[in-house]
Amino acid sequence: MAENINMNDPLVSIIIPCYNHEKYIEECILSVVNQTYKNIELIVIDDGSKDNSPAILEKLQKQYGFFLEVQSNMGISKTLNKAIRNYSHGKYIAGCGSDDFLALDRIERQVRYMVAHPDCDMSFGKVHMVDGKSKIIEDLVIFRPFPEAEKNVTFEFLLDNNCIPSLTTMITREMWDTCGGYNESMAIEDYDLWLKAAYNGKVVYLNEYFSYYRWHGDNESTKVLKIYTETWELIQSWKDKMAPAVARKILPRRDSYTFKVLARKYKKESLKYLKLNHTYWDSYIIGNYLKGLWKLAFSWKNNKGIWK
Question: Among 100, 155, 277, 298, whose Cα sits 20 to 30 Å from the Cα of 176?
Answer without folding.
Answer: 100
